[in-house]
């Protein structure tokens, strides 16, 4: 999360990344790496909010093929609360049903734990489900050894 915070340029803009790793049909998804939006699309953060150019997705697919990973979810930071903005809802960075998007509050400067982040599932056709207050978090943390 330190890198997401760093890319806000001192809290002057949002930042974000695709989370890639293993996504088995059964069992938990495992995040192995972050692919930052602005590494794929240098202008993704220029306006201060995330606006990712979907024409840059082929490079993400190439990275996934090289590493034998798939896109598990995406994450971006907000300046305040972790609620979805109108632009988040209207312009998903991964516009396919079943994709999960996480939003970290306070530019990822505070404690970032499940239950304290936005957890949203894109259903397609502009529809989302908010899992932020679900009894069971969608994201589990496990420390590396």
Explain how this protein is built.
- The protein is of the alpha+beta class and 145 residues long.
- It has a single domain (2-130), classed as Cytidine Deaminase, domain 2 (3-Layer(aba) Sandwich).
- Helix content is 17%, strand content 27%.
- The chain has helices at residues 2-6, 37-40, 57-67, 86-90; strands spanning 16-22, 30-36, 70-77, 99-104, 118-124, 127-130.
- The protein has a 6-stranded mixed sheet.
- A hairpin with a 2-residue loop joins strand 5 and strand 6.
- The longest helix has 11 residues, at 57-67.
- The two termini are 18 Å apart.
- The model has no long low-confidence stretch (mean pLDDT 89).
Q: Would you kindly provide a brief summary of this structure?
A:
The chain is an alpha+beta fold and 145 residues long. The chain has helices at residues 2-6, 37-40, 57-67, 86-90, and strands at residues 16-22, 30-36, 70-77, 99-104, 118-124, 127-130.
């Amino acid at each position: 999360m330190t890198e997401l915070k760093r890319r806000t340029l001192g809290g002057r803009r949002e930042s974000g990344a695709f989370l890639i790793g293993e996504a088995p049909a059964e069992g938990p998804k495992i995040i192995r790496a972050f692919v930052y939006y602005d590494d794929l699309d240098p202008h993704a953060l220029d306006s201060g909010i995330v606006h990712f150019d979907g024409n840059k997705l082929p490079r993400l697919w190439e990275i996934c093929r090289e590493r034998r990973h798939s896109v598990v979810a995406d994450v971006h930071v907000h300046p305040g609360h972790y609620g979805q903005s109108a632009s988040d809802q209207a312009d998903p960075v991964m516009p396919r049903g079943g994709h999960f998007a996480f939003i970290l509050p306070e530019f990822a400067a505070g404690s970032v734990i499940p239950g304290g982040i936005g957890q949203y599932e894109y259903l397609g056709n502009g529809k989302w489900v908010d899992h932020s207050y679900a009894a069971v978090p969608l994201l589990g943390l496990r420390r590396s050894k």
